[in-house]
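Handout, page 2. Input:
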Amino acid sequence: MDCVMEGNKPTVLILCPTRRDEYHAAKINDIPDDTKQRFRFYKATSGENESFDLLRYIELCEKIIVKENVQQIMSFSDIGVLVHSALVQKFPSIKGPSVESVLVPFHKYYSRLYLDSKEATLKHVYIDPAEFDGDQLRRALAYVGVPGLIKPCTGTGSFGVSRISSVADLQEYITWYNSQRLGKQSDEVKFTEKYADTGMYPYFANNGLILEEFVDDAKTASMEGYVFQGEIFHWQITENVYWKKHPLTFKGCAMPFRTFDENLTARLWATYDAIIGKAIERGFDNQFIHVEAFVRPNGDVKVMEINPRMFTQIIPIYRMCCENGDPMAALLDIGSGVRPGPCIWNDKFGFNGYVVTFATGKAEELLDFDEVANFPEVSLRCCHGDEIRDCGDGGANLAYVNIAGKNRQDVMMRYYYICEKILKKPEFSPSIEDEEDCNDYVY
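Output:
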């Protein structure tokens, strides 16, 4: 998957360790072609039967950097930014974040411990799924409160996020989680053992869980920004939306963030700045960084999680709803040593919706690929032959639906319509009929 621009120009290595990275990397082709870079896309495997080896991928990237005189790297995903940080450690002249500054926010327990402020954190407990007993779980659940929320410390997407109402629930979840790991050491654990200080961060070296207090009375905001040469710059705030009758199931991202408090935006950015300032102290630089936060009815802001990379799925909405709103172009500028211009909302309403299912099976059994072809708003997250597995209470996301317009109601009704048309088993998915108040079907 190589793309070479003519001429003797600086080389930019585009990291594509996952298929999702390949999808997002393709968006680089939408950037105006007056750039002066030579792009080198490097995907993880060349065949469907090849297994991914993170450390091997990093070694091969190192060879490319030396052979092709790479001067800049672009990364978009959790795995991609891990690779990026390891390459920056090996080649300090390349701009990007340090390993520590990526791993701390990537690990949900350490991000709570070291990046959250006291005021913005949630009650939480670390749980080792290999070593626990009933009394320990009982104390942990009593501390965070019932219900609680459990998830893998290094999980991505919504994998493994579940609501817990009893010690029995917790024990059942751990049994399920251990069965998903199948006794294998994850690539992330191998990565941390090689590149990180596991003496300082011992929980990096296992596949632990975090149990947190459950929040069900709040809106959720996503603050996006970037660090450029040690300085924080804001991008936009969007709203994370969940299904009312499925509060752990992500519905999508809406722009703009709805607020009736003129001071709330300032408080959200203040929370963001405090977190990113701590990340900068650990070496975070020249990369986007994304923070999700709960906003409770009383205005309190509580951090949900921190992602040391851009919020890639909402790129189409930024592009449709903002002037100078292409984060891919901005990331290219950042790595080139040029500060991007400000991202300014253009008054359109945008929605990046999820096509979610609780069913399992082959992708073609759940999604009508022929029907998908009729809707340019749809971006697939799966292919023919993919095995869709149980992802817990969050469900599995099969595709994104990206829509923008002046009328919020029309945009949302279009989203519901598309989901209904492309799902083969809609009875296993949330729908407009599941909303508690259909007058609020906008969200």
